[in-house]
């Protein structure tokens, strides 16, 4: 499956580094929600859902994490380990995150506020919906 | 001077922790820009500016940092060392950040895109403007 990364400019100098994310400039949507996962316990696998509509960008602003992606047709796995690189997740992609490093802070920018109705948490339902979407 | 902190809910469980920031819910403005400072060299002091209009919230999502604040009338210093707590910075506050821990990731949410004209980088000019603002 196609995986889209977004590489961010490096605004660092001799003092340190800075990355800036701006809606309509390097973020292809309106930023309505920002969340971050941290202090994840060892051997934990998180995610296990897809979104019906919501789009997001995931960035490991500290540490590293593996992201398993599944569009209902193909699966792939990517590693996020750079504050300069975001993973763009369109709607209807099943994701599972694993192998969080102990210092991992996984930041996510989303184009929607939290809405439980937007989540697909059952994998079989996800496969059925993804199949229907490909046919339509 | 008055310092406003915003405490965020803790959405953690046995897997790890999660903090969510949402415009109009726990963030009192539209999130148009997100930036993060990291890999700051030891003994560096950053900032040295105020914003004419821009509002922002600073969060140490990893590590810790000291923030010196100055409204042109009073100064104070706060430490940011928790991913659960944001420092709300209204417009016209001079800020300098120092004592970044080596693991510090300082995330900032702002209500405006980057605009160099919004920065006041000269401290004397800042004091003059702040004085005028108090009189008006």
From TrEMBL, chains A, B:
Isomerase keyword on record: yes
Keyword match Isomerase: yes
Sugar 3,4-ketoisomerase QdtA cupin domain location: 1-129
Pfam families from the UniProt entry: FdtA
InterPro entries: QdtA_cupin_dom, RmlC-like_jellyroll, RmlC_Cupin_sf
Keyword entries, A-Z: Isomerase
Gene Ontology terms, MF aspect: isomerase activity
Name of the protein in its database record: dTDP-6-deoxy-3,4-keto-hexulose isomerase
Organism annotation: Bradyrhizobium nanningense
